[in-house]
Amino acid sequence: SIPYRSMSGIASADISKSYAQNNHDKVSDSYSRSAINIFIATIFMALIIVCNLHNAVAIMGEGYEAVFGVTIIMMLGKLIDGSTGLNDVALNMSPYFKLNFYFSVGLVLFMLVMFRIFIPIYGIYGAAWVFSISLVIYNLLKTFYVWKKMKLQPFSKGNLTTLFIGLVVAGMVFFLPKLANPYWDTMYRSGLIV
After folding, report:
1. What does the longest C-alpha to C-alpha distance in the chain come to?
2. Distance CA 4, CA 1 (A)
3. How far apart are CA 85 and CA 31, in angstroms?
4. Measured between alpha carbons, how far is 34 from 41 in angstroms, rounded to an integer?
5. pLDDT tens sequence across 43-90
């Protein structure tokens, strides 16, 4: 969430100004550039977290082993969220601004129903899956609507390149030998990712 929050403020001002000037090419350019930049930052933040999860579990101690699986599941939803760009900004600048409200209400209702079903069966993993699936549905709905109504879409070949580089870096860092001290191991892995 951190890359999205920090970059969306800057990009939304640019998109808003271009939208007010009725400059669709500039809106499209700012939207696309911000989407790939957010995705790059999101991928590498995710890498730092995932490649250090074993250290987080070691630092927290016994009883926190579920953190690893739950974080991975929730990370999937956040990666989709980070890859779909500034749909909120695009919708808020348009005549379709009320859709954000309706999509959000729908998301909350969907989550409440799904939590009631999945948590009793799967516990914390059920909650994590509901969170991720809800984020994916929510973002895909907004992305589809922005693409259909405003002719804006956040995906480019840069997304595939970023994903590929992220997977290569994850493969290299994840399988490095683990240091005995989780604090030193975290600094070592994070430094290599950066």
Report:
1. 58
2. 5
3. 7
4. 11
5. 999 999 988 998 898 899 888 888 889 999 999 999 998 888 788 888
